[in-house]
Amino acid sequence: MFRYFxxxxxxxxxxxxxxxxxxxxxxxxxxxxMFQTLGREGIRFLGQFECASYSTELAPDRKGSGRSAIxxxxxxxxxSDELVKTQEQEIEDEASGEVDLAGLRExxxxxxxxxQQVTGTAARRSLYRRSAAVRRYVLARAAGVCExxxxxxxxxxAQGEPYLEPHHTRRLGDGGPNxxxxxxxxxxxxxxxxxxxxxxxxxxxxLIELIRQKEGxxxx
Length: 220
Hints:
The chain is an alpha+beta fold. The protein has helices at residues 17-23, 25-28, 85-95, 101-113, 120-142, 188-196, 200-219, and strands spanning 2-5, 32-37, 43-60, 66-76, 165-168, 183-186. It is elongated, with a radius of gyration of 19 Å. The two termini are 38 Å apart.
């Protein structure tokens, strides 16, 4: 997890421009990419991140005066998929009573719209909850049918549910952004083809359009 100080060199930091963009990137459907400056050697791409939370703390500004500084906690997007099994099961158990698709969608959208003012373990747990909520909703939306090829899920899991895999359409690897507008539920074969197949890009674009139609219909 990176602690990233927000913009603003003099006076209290406020949620404008870059600071607002970081805090609200999930709600805005924007990717959060991090780069490291290497001096004369240029820059290095560190990957795609998510804003798990933010906090404020006292810190000197450019003139040495004390002010309220915004500190973001940024987590690699892939981390939201690397849930410890006990945590994932606990989160799923808490949501097990929510079976209505509209209710699940509302829950996910509210999670995307809210970046909590927490730190440390609480920040990571907030991110895990968001990831689990998105996964649950997307699988419910698919109703056991691959959203790429239109075929039934290849098998039923030990928990009695059709097996499909969440795929994030906005990046090469799975992980984020955790927003139902950019996540599909696909069978393992389609998932591998999207990532590694000759027609992978075309499949991904078709999936994006299908999700757009579904999410547009659910909003209306």
